[in-house]
């Protein structure tokens, strides 16, 4: 019998590359490695780098300048010839960045959002492999601030005309609610973008006493807008809905 070695085919692995937002314009990315987007080569970041949104090119934005209220994609980039050190780049393009001269590989590793002053929106990342979680430091307002629809109504998970969560179907999103029932025993119902209703039901016990909390729902992307749905039991009720964060896969 001939003993043949077991060869494990490469997969789109990620290790390390933890992200931290440290100021209005700076984020650090820890050392680590990831397969490139075509699953052909490893991109290895040997030490922590700092992304500066004021810069253009390597460890900055790929083109132009950072603008207000945009969810940017963050990429690890590399050079297959090994003539240039790996780094990162921020891009408006959700599928591929504009690469600096000398670079020919990339892999998306996360998202960074600008606020209405073109600063990085503060938040916190967790995870060091393919599954990551991002939590906003301050929950982000949607346009539903006093919603009183009694039939299921879409909630756009956007602010300033731009998405608050990745435009990926079935993204798990943390939704925060502040429900103000007009009378006892009225309820708020929340459902995922692909749901048929009633995934989460919140019941008010006392009139005009706010009920607050959060729920995990799955967003549906429709015309580049991520959606969930809500309904209240009476038009005399009101709910404010904010986005607390999201889970994503890289």
3D architecture notes:
With 250 residues, the chain is mainly beta. The protein folds into two domains: 14-129, no CATH class; 138-249, Jelly Rolls, CATH 2.60.120. 0% of the residues lie in helices and 48% in strands. The chain contains no helices and 21 strands. The strands form five sheets. Strands 11, 12, 13, 16, 17, 18, 19, 20 and 21 form a nine-stranded antiparallel beta sheet that branches. Strands 7-9-8-10 form a four-stranded mixed beta sheet, with no helix packed on it. A hairpin with a 6-residue loop joins β4 and β5 (42-45). Mean pLDDT is 93; it is low at 4-8.
Keywords:
250 residues; mainly beta; Jelly Rolls; 9-stranded antiparallel sheet; 4-stranded mixed sheet; 21 strands; 48% strand; elongated
Sheet with most strands: 9 strands, antiparallel
Which bin fits the share of residues in helices?
under 10%
Query: Structural class given helices, strands, pairing?
Result: mainly beta
Our measurement of the CA-to-CA distance between the termini, rounded to an integer number of angstroms, reads 41 Å
The secondary-structure element order is EEEEEEEEEEEEEEEEEEEEE
Low-confidence stretches: 4-8
Number of domains: 2
How much β-strand is present in the residues?
over 45%
- Please work out how many helical segments DSSP would assign: 0
The radius of gyration over CA amounts to 21 Å
Average of the residue pLDDT scores: 93
Would you count the extended β strands for me?
A: 21
Outline type: elongated
